[in-house]
Amino acid sequence: MPKDRSELPPVEELLTAAVTGLGGVERPGQVKMAQAVGDAIESEEHLAVQAGTGTGKSLAYLVPAIRHAAESGDAVVVSTATIALQRQLVDRDLPRLADALESLLPHRPEFAILKGRRNYLCRHKMAAGMPEDEDDQLFDPREVSATGRMVQRIQDWANETETGDRDEIVPGVSDQAWRQFSVTARECLGAQRCPSGADCFAELARERAGEADVVVTNHALLAIDAMEDFAVLPEHDVVVVDEAHELVDRVTSVVTGELSESTVSLAVRRAGRLIEQGVADRLQEAGEDLRALLAVAPPGRVDTLPQSLGMTLALVRDAAFACITALGPRNKDKDDPENAGLRKAAFTALDEVHDTAQRMLDAFGPAAGGDGAGDDEDMDSAGSPDSARSRDSASSGGANGGGTDARSEEVHRAEVVWLEEGRGRVPPTLRVAPLSVGGMLRDKLFGDRTVVLTSATLALGGTFDSLSRQWGLRTGEWTGLDVGSPFDHPRRGILYVATHLPQPGRDGLPEAYVDEIAELIEAAGGRTLGLFSSMRAAKAATEALRERLDVPLLCQGDDSTSQLVKQFAGDPATCLFGTLSLWQGVDVPGPSLTLVIIDRIPFPRPDDPLASARQRHVAATGGNGFMAVAATHAALLLAQGAGRLLRSMDDRGVVAVLDPRLATARYSGFLLNSLPPFWRTTDPAKVREALRRLTADA
Ligand code: SF4
């Protein structure tokens, strides 16, 4: 074991030891990637690496990351989009890697997982120090008993848990039940002031992370750490973003604000216990006005602010501000420690309502914001994603403001507001999100650390340009590397585009598509993953084909997705149809998955408010909105969907795209260049023959 940091073996030697220790074989793409990651860390240059399935990319970044941590003494942060990958890293890859590398490093590599505060049990709230946020849903007797049972399970588990991590509870519990025992980062009192601070699970997790060489987290927490003024993650100078194709969407979710009657009533309930009734009633009334307005407003993007909505938003904002003022100074908790938790929770909910209403008004230009209390500079909004957003808009020259015509207005627009329809007990909700998070990422994430971004799908249309633009990176600020894939795509896979079929229409799945799917599945003997662009199409195909085919056909929603994938993997004759989560989340090596059917190019829906606004904005600023937004989105999903086919070196099969535009449209080259280099055909007879041969060999 080297005692000195200067004696550390090079990345290549550590990788060989890791691969040998894990019982694997050295792969050229993995070696190339590990060297590139090591070089990027050394030269402090951002790096984007596309590494196809089977490259072994987690070892290729973990080995140089661990070496850097040993050398510098600082942690390396690894961020993922999914819990599945977090678990794979923490439960499988990192423990084995630590065993394999221990003898070559000054100390055994330590690792830890760190999630957002709301994922940990809050001991203070558990001890009833804070409000429970019960709402009308609890008056439904079925909800009461279901939630009550979950609450009981959480209480039983709370007596035994050592980590307080929600993911330990199996089966999982609803958000509603969990909320009774958890707080957000903003609701937390802070360990110094909290009576349970010394035993706080979230604080213990942070402490463990502070001692680790590798800290595994998710994109949302990474974004919060980069954007807030206070540190959430331990000190670090290197970040590896795995599943980097998801980064922009996850960051957008973190900075999306929402306002509805529910968010307003939550603030009223919390404030109502602490302030004069009349002041809380004013906010309640503004919330009711908002409810009445949203109930009859058409869902979708709000391009110009209707006067009635502008007035209601201003009412909500001002009423929330009055409640905030009535709560008194924020720092009076030391005089009133008993109510510290209640006051913090009330401030958080009221700030959220006030800031979001103001942000929505700002999205339409300064005239819409009005004057009034919202402009008061005493508001404690420093460090919120809002303030990060404002700085981002300002730094990228995107300050809100009115132009003299629609195009100029569009160029200057920084945020988009839309109304989402109510569903079940979820009321209609107004949302606001930035048109681009690129400037924000550039300033906050890439600004003062080295970032390595990796995924199996980053080079869209054959280049990294589309995604690097979305990340806000400029030429010269980063390097791109495609280490390819160990799979022999042209020999092991066929890409079939059904050019003889009609273009998909708006009226559901065409009959000719159902016939084509039936013939393909018959030739494959089942073994099919059907990836549909909508749940409606997946259900229509399932219904039509269950009558026509002898093979078992599962549809997303019949059971939990993980159960369905298990059944699908366990029986080769079974087919599985579904939509979005299957496009990216299915990993089934072997003959159970021989055919992937994609019904249509997965463009965003034309009425998707954020995508359509982003597209229009790019066009207004002189770019090609369709290629930058819709085609990029489709290319990413198509590549992810097609990537479900080959999951191990022995896999073979067909990706069948029924939408003829993949071969005929003017943008088809961009999409085709985003896919693995399968052998291509448009001949249905050849494909069916190939599927029959594969089935006979299986
Ligand atoms: S420090 Fe925050 S999260 Fe921890 S117990 Fe106290 S209030 Fe809860």
Description:
- With 698 residues, the chain is α/β, with parallel strands linked by helices.
- A 7-stranded parallel sheet has the order 3-4-2-5-10-1-11, with helices on both faces. The chain has a 7-stranded parallel sheet with strand order 14-15-13-16-17-12-18, with helices on both faces.
- Strand 8 and strand 9 form a beta hairpin.
- Helix 9 crosses helix 10.
- It starts with 10 loop residues before the first helix and ends with a helix.
- The site of iron/sulfur cluster (SF4) has 15 residues, from helix 5 and helix 8.
Can you tag this structure with a few keywords?
698 residues; alpha/beta; 7-stranded parallel beta sheet; 29 helices; 12% strand; globular; binds iron/sulfur cluster
Distance N terminus to C terminus? 48 Å
The unreliable regions are 371-404
User: What's the pLDDT, averaged over the residues?
Assistant: 88
Radius of gyration: 27 Å
Question: What multimeric state do the chains show?
Answer: single chain
The counted number of beta strands is 18
The fraction of residues assigned to DSSP E strands is 5-15%
Q: Walk across the major sheet and give the strand order.
A: 3-4-2-5-10-1-11
Q: TL;DR of this structure?
A:
With 698 residues, the protein is α/β, with parallel strands linked by helices. Helices cover 47% and strands 12% of the residues.
Q: Topology, please?
A:
Layout: H1 11-21, H2 28-43, E1 46-50, H3 57-72, E2 75-80, H4 83-101, E3 111-113, H5 123-126, H6 141-158, H7 175-179, H8 201-211, E4 214-218, H9 219-227, E5 236-241, H10 247-254, E6 257-259, H11 261-272, H12 277-296, E7 300-302, H13 307-327, H14 340-362, H15 366-369, H16 385-395, H17 406-412, E8 415-420, E9 429-434, H18 438-445, E10 450-455, H19 465-471, E11 478-482, H20 489-492, E12 493-497, H21 511-524, E13 528-531, H22 535-548, E14 553-555, H23 561-570, E15 575-578, H24 580-585, E16 595-598, H25 609-620, H26 625-642, E17 653-657, H27 661-664, H28 668-672, E18 679-681, H29 684-697
Parallel strand pairs: 1-10, 1-11, 2-4, 2-5, 3-4, 5-10, 12-17, 12-18, 13-15, 13-16, 14-15, 16-17
Antiparallel strand pairs: 6-9, 7-8, 8-9
Helix pairs in contact: 1-3, 1-4, 2-3, 3-4, 9-10, 9-18, 11-12, 11-14, 12-13, 13-14, 17-25, 21-29, 25-26
